[in-house]
C-alpha cells in the first residue's frame, strides 16, 4: 500500500524477482504505477488482506492508522517507514504477523515516476524484530528484502529511531537551516553556492509533508540529537580562532568520515548464510566476529538460532566470495560451519 517512490521501487524490484504485485493507492497514483510497471494490478486494502506479503509504503502516520484495519489478516505484513517504534507497537496491538522494515535508500524525489527497480541494490535494509516476532516470519521478510537486492540488518525499534534521528532526520533539518541562513543574507546569495553547499543541502528539496510527518513521529529522538548538535556547534563557534583545537576537530571528523557506511554490496543474490553451531558460553560471539573482522571479512547480518539453553547456532550473512576463507578460518579455530542459504 502506497505506490510512490519507495512502494513503486519495491513493486518494480519484486516483479523482477517474479512476484505478482497488487497496488493500493489513490486512483491517479495507481494509473501511474501501472504505466511505470510497478504493479500488475490495482487493488483495495480489503483485497490484499489475503496476499502472501503486504508492504506498507505510505507516510508514517498513514501506516500507523492503517495497521488496525488489517487485524485478522493472515498476510505477512511489513512496512518501509522511516521510524519504527510507534509502528511496531501499533502492529503488535493489532495482533498482526508483522516485521518492521526500513530501507536506507531513497532520494529527495517522490512519486512512482521516480521509482527504480535497483533503488535497494546493495543498500542496508533495517528490520526491527521484537520478542513477539515469529522467527519464521522474520526469515521470510529477510528473504524478501534480499530479493529486492538489499542487505537486511536487524535492530531494535528504539535504537533504530535514535540512529535515524542522527543519521537522517538531523541532516534534513540541517539542510533546511543552511538554506534559510544563506537565503537570509541576500536574495541572490544562493546563486553563488558551490559544490559543498549543494552537497550539504540536496535533501532540502525533499517532500515537505513527508518530512514534517517523519520529524514529528520521531520528535523525542530528534530532540535528543538536536540538543547534542546545538551544543557541538556552540563549542565549535567558541573555538574558531583556536587553530589547534579546530585542526583536532577536523582530524577527528576525517577519521569518522572514513568509517561511513554506504552501499554494502554491488550485486544482489551474492549473500550466503553460514550457520556455526556453538556451545553457549561467554565470549563465543565475540570470538567468531573478531575472527571475521581481523581477517577483513565483512559480516552483513548476524543472528542467533537457539536450540536449547546450552547450544545455539550463530548465523552470519557473508558475501559469497568470503565464504571459503571464513569456513577455513573457523575450522582452524575449532568451529564447525554449514552453508544454510
Ligand atoms: N523518500 C525516501 O527517501 C524514503 C526512504 C526510506 C523510507 N521512506 C519511507 O517510505 C514511505 C513512503 O515514502 P515515499 O518517499 O515513497 O513517498 P511518496 O510520496 O513518493 O509515496 C507515498 C505514496 O503513499 C500514497 N498514500 C498516501 N496515503 C495513502 C493512503 N491512505 N492509502 C494509500 N496510499 C496512500 C501516496 O499517494 C503516494 O503514492 C514513508 O513512510 C517514508 O518515511 C522514504
Ligand atoms: O538520499 C536521500 O535523499 C534520502 O533522504 C534518503 C534517506 C536518508 O536520509 O538517507 C531518507 C529517509 C529515509 O528514511 C532513508 C533514507
TrEMBL record:
Query: What is its pathway?
Result: Amino-acid biosynthesis; L-tyrosine biosynthesis; (4-hydroxyphenyl)pyruvate from prephenate (NAD(+) route): step 1/1
Is Amino-acid biosynthesis a UniProt keyword of this protein? yes
Q: Which GO terms describe its molecular function?
A: NAD+ binding; prephenate dehydrogenase (NAD+) activity; prephenate dehydrogenase (NADP+) activity
Reaction catalysed? prephenate + NAD(+) = 3-(4-hydroxyphenyl)pyruvate + CO2 + NADH
Q: Which Gene3D superfamilies match?
A: 3.30.70.260, 6-phosphogluconate dehydrogenase C-terminal like domain (1.10.3660.10), NAD(P)-binding Rossmann-like Domain (3.40.50.720)
Q: Its family?
A: Belongs to the prephenate/arogenate dehydrogenase family.
Protein's name in the database: Prephenate dehydrogenase
What species does this protein belong to? Rubrobacter radiotolerans (Arthrobacter radiotolerans)
Amino acid at each position: 500500500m502506497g505506490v510512490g517512490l519507495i512502494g513503486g521501487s519495491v513493486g518494480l524490484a519484486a516483479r523482477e524477482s517474479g512476484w505478482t504485485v497488487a497496488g493500493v493507492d489513490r486512483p491517479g497514483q495507481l494509473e501511474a504505477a501501472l504505466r511505470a510497471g510497478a504493479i500488475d494490478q490495482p487493488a483495495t486494502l480489503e483485497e490484499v488482506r489475503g496476499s502472501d506479503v503486504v508492504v506498507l509504503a505510505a507516510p508514517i502516520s498513514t501506516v500507523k492508522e492503517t495497521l488496525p484495519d488489517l487485524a485478522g489478516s493472515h498476510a505477512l505484513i511489513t512496512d518501509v517507514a522511516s521510524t519504527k517504534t510507534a509502528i511496531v507497537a501499533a502492529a503488535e496491538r493489532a495482533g498482526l504477523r508483522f516485521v518492521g522494515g526500513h530501507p536506507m535508500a531513497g532520494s529527495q524525489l517522490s512519486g512512482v515516476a521516480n521509482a527504480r527497480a535497483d533503488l535497494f541494490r546493495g543498500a542496508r535494509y533495517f528490520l526491527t524484530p521484537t520478542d513477539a516476532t515469529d522467527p519464521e516470519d522474520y526469515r521470510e521478510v529477510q528473504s524478501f528484502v534480499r530479493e529486492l537486492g538489499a542487505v537486511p540488518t536487524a535492530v531494535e525499534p528504539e535504537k533504530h529511531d535514535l540512529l535515524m534521528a542522527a543519521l537522517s532526520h538531523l541532516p534534513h533539518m540541517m539542510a533546511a537551516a543552511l538554506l534559510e541562513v544563506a537565503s537570509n543574507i541576500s536574495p541572490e546569495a544562493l546563486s553563488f553556492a558551490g559544490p559543498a553547499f549543494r552537497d550539504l543541502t540536496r535533501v532540502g528539496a525533499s517532500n515537505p509533508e513527508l518530512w514534517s510527518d517523519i520529524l514529528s513521529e520521531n520528535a523525542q529522538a530528534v530532540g535528543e540529537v538536536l540538543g547534542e548538535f546545538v551544543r557541538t556547534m556552540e563549542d565549535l563557534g567558541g573555538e574558531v580562532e583556536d587553530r589547534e583545537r579546530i585542526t583536532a576537530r577536523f582530524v577527528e571528523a576525517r577519521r569518522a568520515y572514513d568509517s561511513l557506511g554506504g552501499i554494502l554490496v554491488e550485486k544482489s543474490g551474492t549473500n550466503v548464510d553460514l550457520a556455526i553451531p556453538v556451545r553457549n558460553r561467554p565470549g563465543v560471539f565475540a570470538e567468531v566476529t573478531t575472527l571475521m573482522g581481523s581477517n577483513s571479512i565483512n559480516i552483513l547480518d548476524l543472528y542467533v538460532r537457539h536450540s536449547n539453553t546450552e547450544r545455539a547456532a550463530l548465523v552470519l550473512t557473508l558475501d559469497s566470495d568470503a565464504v571459503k576463507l571464513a569456513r577455513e578460518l573457523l575450522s582452524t579455530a575449532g568451529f564447525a560451519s554449514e552453508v544454510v542459504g
